[in-house]
Design brief:
This protein has two helices and 13 strands. The protein is α+β, with helices and mostly antiparallel strands.
């Protein structure tokens, strides 16, 4: 038994929530229990499973889209659909490369993903941390800062500010 990644088609263990090959969110993927050794029939099953998952993903693509807007320059944005790894070697690298000290940002710094109709962020044990800043309440301008614990999921919403390694800030827009 395994899960087929809708992004790359890789087989994954059933307990994985991210594809071992491309890091796509596979938490919503159904478990395939057919024997892969029968290539002629199972290859078709695999392709049908991927097609179905991609169709389901495409139906909600607009709903499962968010942006990280650079606070210092609102023209620079990172668009995320369903799932992404943010880091020096992943999404956002073009922005991070222009920073004075990009090495403070980990290669795989954080994972942002859509699950159960909500957006979440997970620090991937980054060296210099991931932080969320949020207003305590609507009447108060003071921001509450939370340092994310590695591998723990935090719900995110519009109006929050994401800080990566204490050197770059993004507005979260869902």
């Amino acid at each position: 038994m395994y899960k087929i990644c809708p992004s790359c088609g890789a087989k994954n263990p059933i307990n994985e929530i991210l594809c071992v090959n491309c890091m796509a969110d596979i938490s919503f993927v159904n478990v395939v229990s057919k024997d892969i050794n029968n290539i002629s029939t199972n290859e078709n099953l695999i392709h049908k499973e991927i097609e179905t998952q991609n169709q389901n993903s495409n139906i909600n693509k607009e709903k499962n889209k968010m942006e990280l807007v650079l606070v210092e320059s609102k023209e620079l944005k990172i668009e995320i659909i369903n799932n992404a790894i943010i880091g020096r070697y992943h999404l956002g690298k073009e922005i991070f490369e222009k920073l004075p000290n990009p090495n403070l940002i980990s290669r795989e710094h954080a994972n942002i993903f859509f699950k159960n109709n909500k957006w979440y962020i997970r620090d991937l044990n980054s060296t210099n941390g991931t932080y969320l800043l949020n207003k305590n309440n609507e009447m108060d301008d003071k921001m509450n800062e939370i340092k994310l614990e590695p591998y723990k999921d935090y719900e995110i919403s519009t109006g929050m500010i994401l800080n990566i390694a204490k050197i770059v800030n993004f507005y979260i827009e869902i």
